[in-house]
Write a structure and sequence with these properties.
91% helix; mainly alpha; single chain
């Protein structure tokens, strides 16, 4: 008698579903990380650079005014 192949099909299905779930999780975390990166760059980094540049521009204007 030939053994049934049902277990092999079930194992393959479980493996396929697990791989698909892993791929969905990767897509979610890639999107999440991209969002966090944009937030850091445009929400924190760029404004802090602008504040720094404004501070040094003000310092330079005061220095030039003091020399005149």
């Amino acid at each position: 008698m030939i053994a049934p192949i049902v277990a092999q099909l079930r194992k393959g299905l479980v493996l396929d579903l697990a791989a698909a779930a892993g791929r969905l999780a990767d897509d979610f975390f890639s999107t999440y990380n991209l969002g966090v990166g944009y937030w850091f760059w445009y929400g924190y980094h760029i404004p802090s650079i602008r504040r720094r540049d404004a501070f040094y521009a003000k310092l330079e204007r005061e220095r030039v005014a003091a020399l005149q």
